[in-house]
Amino acid sequence: MQIVIPTAGRGTRMKNLTDNVPKNMLLIKGKPILAWKLEALPTEIDEVIFIIGYLGQQIKDYFGNSYDGKKISYSVQEKLNGSGGALHLVKGLVENDFLVMNGDDLYLKKDVENILKYDLAMLGLEINASDKFGVISFDENGNLKEIIEKGKVVGSALANVGLYKLNKKFFDYPLVPIGNEEFGLPQTLVLMAKEFPVHVEKATDWFAIGDPEQLEKAQEIIDKFTN
């Protein structure tokens, strides 16, 4: 099983912390975020494909061609054109079934293992405020119906947290533009869901590392996401 991890962005919300290091290589207890993530992956995943960009050579220098028993491959994203655009860069590298995981978020291993059970799936976390997240709408069978824009849902909702189980049929669908010359992976997946059921798995927990305060918090909770 392969996993694709986009890491091309600078992470401007990290301010000067990313002046000389890519966001995903910032340290938690002395180890890069990406290293923690790879070491916590289920054993079924034996190849990691990094989509690199800003200071991406640092990622290549650290992980090389293999890490923690997993083959490592790379693709360079020169133009930041959204999650959908990033994924299309590795169209020729992925085999039939693969995962896609946000590069700067922490996931529980059991949630990753659960999503592996399905042909097509995405992970969502129950939240009370949805103004900061895209929200997953799903049908009575628990399958994806729609991705609702940030701020369009009031009250509790299921936030999209950026973990997907896909197959190569994804590339048969036209990328959905989401503005500013970007294309959305989840929005494109909605098109696919009209023909193939996409299971919505509820996450036990999830943590995004988007700013210095969240990076500081990650130092305290990292053990929860790696055991």
Structure overview:
The chain is an alpha/beta fold. It has one domain: Spore Coat Polysaccharide Biosynthesis Protein SpsA, Chain A (Alpha-Beta Complex), CATH 3.90.550. It has helices spanning 33-39, 56-63, 82-88, 109-115, 185-193, 212-221, and strands at residues 2-6, 27-28, 31-32, 47-52, 66-67, 70-76, 97-101, 105-107, 121-127, 135-138, 144-148, 157-167, 176-179, 182-184, 199-202, 206-208. The strands form five sheets. An eight-stranded mixed beta sheet has the order 5-6-4-1-7-12-9-15, with helices on both faces.
Q: What characterizes the major β-sheet?
A: 8 strands, mixed
Q: What gyration radius follows from the Cα positions, in whole Å? A: 17 Å
Let me know the average pLDDT: 94
Poorly predicted parts? none
Per CATH, the superfamily is Spore Coat Polysaccharide Biosynthesis Protein SpsA, Chain A
End-to-end C-alpha gap: 21 Å
Strand order of the largest sheet: 5-6-4-1-7-12-9-15
Structural domain count: 1
Count of DSSP strands: 16
Tally of DSSP helical segments:
6
Query: CATH first level: which class?
Result: Alpha Beta
Output the helix-strand order: EEEHEHEEHEEHEEEEEEHEEH
TL;DR of this structure?
The chain has 227 residues and is α/β, with parallel strands linked by helices. The protein has helices spanning 33-39, 56-63, 82-88, 109-115, 185-193, 212-221; strands spanning 2-6, 27-28, 31-32, 47-52, 66-67, 70-76, 97-101, 105-107, 121-127, 135-138, 144-148, 157-167, 176-179, 182-184, 199-202, 206-208.
